[in-house]
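Pasting as-is:
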Amino acid sequence: MKNEHVVFPELSYKIIGVAFTVFNKLGWGLKEKEYQKALALEFKNSYLHFDEQVFIPITYNTRIGNYYADFIIEGKVLLELKVVHKLGYSQIKQVLGYLKIAGIKLGILIYFTKEGVKYRRVLNSEVSIRII
């Protein structure tokens, strides 16, 4: 039975699958930038449209800061990468902040560890999904 409440399940599955492909080829121990470059190549191979290092301005009557999201996939999912031993609340909070400022519903935080690829889906409850 399909869960109708899961946001972008097929796209999420593809994105996470690409991360596993990259990790299986490269293994553990690289910097975030190397994983990011490899992910970009695999997204192209998977025919996924993506924007990389996406500028997200923070405004308060005027621009007060900037975020740079690692990827936005298909204009729907914000993807943030980390190379850490353990995920903390601060990384999830960072992704939620990006989602709110960008007006995007779903974020995926992928982190590469010695044990393999791990991920967290982060939902922005302030955005509703438009079904066309």
